[in-house]
Amino acid sequence: LVPSPTDLVGVLDGETATFTWTNPEPLEGDSYLWRTVTVLETGELERLAEPTVEVPAPGGAQVCIEVSLRRDEGRTSPTVRGCTP
Questions:
Q1: Could you tell me which residues come within 8 angstroms of residue 26 by beta carbon, excluding any fewer than 6 positions away?
Q2: Could you read off the pLDDT of 17-51 as tens digits, one per residue?
């Protein structure tokens, strides 16, 4: 099994939300799949190499994302969700 990211935290700074998380069992070639989520829709999945992402937060509104860990061979973890305060 691929472990889910842990310690997903979102912080608002003006109109930008910065999210960070931890890879509990890092391996060479790991990456992350993430997307924004709202009550009405989910964004497109994007891939990142680092455990951090900045997302626009128009008007300082709350932002939520889902993140999963992707192993180099393509297996992924269950997603975790985090929101800014």
A1: none
A2: 999 999 999 999 999 999 999 888 899 999 999 99
